[in-house]
Queue: 2 jobs
Job 1
Amino acid sequence: MNQRLLRLHALLSELEIDAALITSSANIRYLTGFTGSNGMLLLTVKSDTFYTDPRYTTQAAQETVSAGVKVKIGKGHLLNLPLEDLGKSRIKRLAVENQTIPFSYITAMQPKLPLGAELVGLNGTVDQLRAIKDDDEMQAIRASVKTCSAAFERAIKRFRPHMLESELALEIDYQMRKLGASGPAFETIVASGERSALPHARPSRQPIREGQLLLIDMGASQEGYASDMTRMLHVGEASRQASKLHRAVLESQLAALEAIKAGVTAHKVDQAARKVLKQHGLEKAFVHSLGHGLGLEIHEYPRIGKRSSDRPAAVVLEENMAITVEPGAYVPGFGGVRIEDTVLVTKGGVEILTPTSKELRVL
Ligand code: ZN
Ligand code: ZN
């Protein structure tokens, strides 16, 4: 059994859970090493079994070796295999990934559980384990960040006025792959002019023109791990309004970075960023949360944001969490600015992984 499975088993026993069915592919990869698309993992006090279909017989055997799980191959609906094993067991409390498991799985499972067995939610227990990165993961994230930043430099060198947003996005994706990424970690955002005020703009076929702000939000996926960076550029000399907006957001981002260290709550870091934007009269222009965890997925636990009634529990930052810090200010009809780094939380502060300059770059 690997360290990750050992830790999870210890948590399960604390929660008095004697079996857990893991169905999310990122959690399966994290716990077993399996990178395929179809698999389930059943953990019980007695054994850990990984189920997949015949396409993955060789791959599953190879990838899960160090996890030390039993591999079972089956045809038909994959859920039938763990259900069969569960039916023969004497488990009392079975935990499922209630935040992501398909509802149809729940209805199929209920009649087949051992008599008196109770179904409970894992409530993101594995996601919380994943938030704290081990050495291998940090290495993969560093490699991913490096690729992202190098691809950014190469792509903007190839920028020509009137290039389409979609062409520049394609150039970015091409460079990331050329530098070792398996692909972008999410759809690359290239948004120019007024469109930069849309926090989640998709690259359009609009030409990038002189006198416009240009927002690039990009990340590589490398060795399975994501990086995430947003930088601002300006085509030609920046106007006063654009420079002012950029300075305010940069100041806010630096204040948030300053506030990060192990033991601090996420919403306090979010507040540090908001406070600065408020001083610039931009608090209402910051319409999303400050950041997010990242790793095997681009958006992971924890969310770095305001405390709200639907998320009452305070998230406390811990050493070796990998998170993003990305305040933004969006002015409809003019444009928006976001500045985002990928960082590691350390005992006494923060290590900023993203090496790219945060200045408003003139193209
Ligand atoms: Zn981003
Ligand atoms: Zn992000």
Job 2
Amino acid sequence: VKKKILFELRKLSGSYVSGEALSVQLGVSRTAIWKHVRELREEGYKIGSSSKKGYMLSAVPELNENEIKNGLQTIYLGRTIVYLETVGSTNTYAKKISLEGCHEGTVVVSENQTSARGRLGREWHSEGGKGIWMSVVLRPSIPPESVQIITLAAAVAVVKAIQYVTGIEAAIKWPNDIILNGKKLCGILTEMSCEMERVNFIVVGIGINVNHSEEDFPQNLRKIATSLKIFSQSIKNGDSHSYNRSAILKRLLFELEQMYNVINNCPSNKIDVDLNTNGNAVIAENSDSLTKEDSNSIVNEWRKYSLTLGKEITVIARGGEYNGIAVDITSDGRLIVLANDGIKHEILSGEVSIRGF
Ligand code: BTN
């Protein structure tokens, strides 16, 4: 009932709807309407009331389950949202519910993370209420060695969503750091559970710095991290601009679903076949495994936004460092580096970090 009340108030946002009309339309008492309105207010919805005219919605919270689902254009990504005020790490939480069998496309979002994790065992600073801290559960029918392509797709989805919603053009540092003005705007941590030949599930964890001011980052990160708000301030003579996190998140899920359908061989005319009994998105019956063309179409998108290709870089691997030129990436997402000694390397993201521009 609460969702239906919100739906009705949203339809008439800016004008009043009477408690009587709502109660008749939804078949519940006026007291019940009043109680749900009170709950909605507690959740951050600004609902004015007047004894003569009824209720009027004047403002909505920036990020919660309802706001993400309202106008969401996806078929299965984000159809189940777990919205939490605080969690240790959305990735850890998503892994737990994946093991318990949650639906493919389930998204875990939290306002705060107390022990967020980054790649290569690093920590991730996730300032409460300022960023998008989320994890998406996928159950792709591709072999474990192809999973990197999903991380590349996620990076492309982030860049496209940010561009669509804010007009800001970020770029990708291989494999999947999103960079703005030479500083890190977003990081992606993909984790997977698999057997030798099949993936049980993967969790794509995405952290985007959205409405941080400089002071919201610890001192040691201020030189290397940025947010959309800081960037907008720098181009608008100091005027600060906050962005709607639900809008970015929704678009991100849409962009990611488009690319994931290609990877997972879900032709768009088939994907409304619904979820199967295990809760996985149904894959076309005649689907092959991930083809080179499918991968290439994702990799081509990735190339468009790459900051790394053509640049001189330093590869920092366990065995030591070397310099070279990042010449391309393979269809499965490895970076091809022509080292200064003439040797060509194909590097995997789990093994190295790169430095360079
Ligand atoms: C990196 O660049 O090192 C990856 C950072 C990934 C951070 C996100 S925030 C949401 C999700 N939960 C985590 O604990 N980590 C990822």
